[in-house]
Amino acid sequence: MAGLWGTPEQLRQLTEQLVGWESQGLTEGEVKFPERLKAKLMEMEYFCNHPELVSLGEVNWERRYLTALYKHEKATRTVVLLSHFDTVAVHEYGDLAPLAYQPAELEKAFQKIKSEFKPEMQDDLASGDYLFGRGIMDMKSGLAIHMALIERASLENWPVNIVLMSVPDEEVNSAGMRYGVSKLLDLERQYALEYVLFLNGEPVFAKSPGDESQYIYTGSIGKIMPSALFYGKETHAGEPLAGMTSSYLSTYLTRKMEWNPAFSETVHGEETPLPVTLTQGDMKEEYSVQTPYRTKALYNVFTMDRNAEDVMDIFEGLAKESAAECMEDYRALCEKVAMEPRFDDIRVLRYEELVDYAEEKFGIDYINQLIHDTLMDPERDVRDKSFHIADILLLNCQELTPGIVLLFAPPYYPAVNSSEDPFIEECVAHVTRDAFERFDLELEQVHFFNGISDLSYVNYQDSSSGWVSYENNTPVYGDPYSIPFQSMQQLKAPVLNIGPFGKDPHKRTERLHIKNAFEEIPEIIASLILHIGEQAD
User: Fold this and answer.
1) Looking at residue 293, what is its pLDDT?
2) How far apart are CA 385 and CA 400, in angstroms?
3) Strand partners for 296
4) What does the pLDDT read at residue 238?
C-alpha cells in the first residue's frame, strides 16, 4: 500500500514522532498536540481533498480534541476509533527525563545503566524487540495505528466509514472524552452515520507481574471515588476527651473501607480489585495545641455492574457502622475516667442532605455564592474544591457535628461491557481466528479493561437513578466537572479494545513491542474493520 504510514517502518517513525511531541497532562504540550496532529493528518491526500472532515473541538483550559472522518459515499456503518494523546509526567526518569520523549536516545542511555534494571527488563533491552519512552505504550502507539488505518481505508476505498477521535486529559479527569461525546452525536447526525462499534486502542495491560499474554477487551472497568469529610469536636490537647479528633473518627471508616469485600463484584468470572484509600489527612493548616477536627478521605472503588447509587448505599451503611462503633468506644473511655460524654451521637449524612439543611438555614443564594467562589479558585483542583465546599457548609452548621459527610469526588468512570452482544461475539471470533491463522498469535478475551479508559463515556445503560445520585452528591458537579449521561446513552454501539502489547505503563521502563505494534495489531484491526464494512448495510 502506498501512502505515508503504510509500512511497519513508516508506522514506527510516526509513533516515535508522536512520542517526541511532549503532551503531559496540564502542560503546554497537551494544548499544542492536537494542532500538530491535525497538520499531520492533513498531509494525507484524502484530507487535502476533504479538509472539512478534520476538526478540533474545545475542551477546557485551551485544550482540544481532534476528530477526523473517512466517509465512504455509499456506506452508513461506522467504526469509531478512540485514543488519547496526553501522558503522565516523567519525574521517575530522573536525570534521563530529557530523553523520555526520544526513544532511540533513551534506549542508548538505558544500555549504559542496564545493571540497574530487573532481569526481565535487561532481557527486553538486550533483545531489540522493544521501543522505550513516555507514552509510547500508553498510548501514542494506539493513535499512530489508528492514523495508519484511516489512511489505508481512504487509499483502498474501504466500504465503511471511520471516525478517528483523539482526546486530551484521559490520565486526569477524561475531560476530553466527556466534551467529545456531543461531537460524536453531531457527526452522526450531520453525515447520516450508523455507529456500529467504538474501538479503543489502549495497550494490553498485564494481569500480574511477568504476564506476557495478549488480550482484547470487551468492556472497561468502572471507577468511582466515594469520599468523606469527618468533623470532630475541637479541644485543647490537655483535655482530650472534651472533644474528638477528626483523625480518630476517620480511622473507623477507613478501616472498614480498605480492602472491604462488600464492594467486590464478579462478572463474567472477573473480579474487581478491592477498594483502597487514595488520600487521607486532616485539614488543619497550622501548628497549635488545638486538636484537628476536620479530616478528609478519598477512597477508590472499582465497579462492573453497580452504579453510583449502589456504591453510595454501601458506603453510607459502612459510615453509620463506623460512627456507631466510634461513639461506643468514646462513651467507654468517658465512663472509665468518670466523665460525662460531651456529645450524644455522631451524625452521618450525604452531601445532598447537608445542602438541604444549609439551604433551609441560609437560603439558596448563600449556597450558590459559596460554590461559585470555590470554583473560581485557581489554586484548587476539583477534588480539593469538592472538600472545600462541604467543609465551609459544615463549618457554618456545626450543630450537625460531630459528623461524617459523604460525597463523591471526581473523576467517575462508569463501567461498560459488551461481552454478551452478538455482534461483539462475532468480532471476537473473527479477531482471535485471524490473529492465530496469520501470525500464530493467541489473543485472549478479557471482559473488562483493567486500566480504566474513555470507553466509559459511550454506550451508557444505567437508569437515571444512578446518575442523579452522583450529580446530587458531587459538590463540584456542573461547570467544572460534569458527565453527559443522557448523551452517552444515545451512543448505543458496543465497545471493544484492541491495542498493542507493551510493558510497564507509567514507569520509566515503559516499552512497546515492535513487531506486535507495527506488524500484527494494525493488520488484525484492519481485517476486522474490513469485515464490518463488507457486511450489508
Assistant:
1) 80
2) 21
3) 229, 281
4) 58
Phi-psi sector, 514: left (phi>0), alpha (psi -120 to 50), beta = alpha
pTM attached to this predicted model: 0.94
**C-alpha cell of 347?**
451524625
C-alpha separations of 247 from 229, 253, 281, 291, 354 in Å? 11, 11, 8, 9, 21
| Cα(201)–Cα(145) distance, integer angstroms | 8
pLDDT average per 10 residues of sequence, the chain (537 residues):
90 98 97 98 98 97 97 97 97 96 98 96 97 98 98 98 98 95 98 98 91 96 98 71 84 97 97 96 69 89 96 98 96 89 93 97 93 88 94 94 97 97 98 98 96 95 85 93 95 98 96 98 98 80
| Alpha carbon distance 450, 272 (integer Å) | 9
From CA 318, how far away is CA 316, in angstroms rounded? 5
Closest listed residue to residue 502, CA positions, set 214, 221, 217: 214
Cβ–Cβ under 8 Å, residues 67 and 164: yes
* Coil/strand/helix, residue 381: coil
**One-character DSSP codes across 271-314:** EPPPPEEEEEEE---S--SBPP-EEEEEEEEEESS--HHHHHHH
Q: How many Å apart are CA 249 and CA 215, to the nearest integer?
A: 44
Strands of 351-412, DSSP E: 403-408
Element (H, E) at 224: strand 222-224
Q: Is-cis flag, bond preceding 165, omega within 30? A: no
* Rg of the Cα atoms in the chain: 26
Distances (CA, A) of 130 to 140, 497, 511: 15, 22, 6
SS3 state at 66: strand
- Report which secondary-structure segment, H or E, holds 266: strand 266-267
Beta bridge partners of 267: 270
Name the amino acid, one letter, at 365. Answer: D
CA dihedral 21, 27, 31, 35 (to 10 degrees): -10
Residue-by-residue DSSP string for 71-128: --SS--EEEEEEEE--B---GGGGGGGGGTT-HHHHHHHHHHTGGGS-HHHHHHHHHT
β-pair partners for 416: 220
> Cα separation of 222 and 303, whole Å?
5
DSSP letter (8 states) at residue 25: T
Question: 3-state DSSP call for residue 261?
Answer: helix
For residue 159, the model assigns a pLDDT of 97
Buried b (16+ CB within 10 A) or exposed e, 470-509: bbbbbbbbeebbebbbebbbbbebbbbbbbbbbbbbeebb
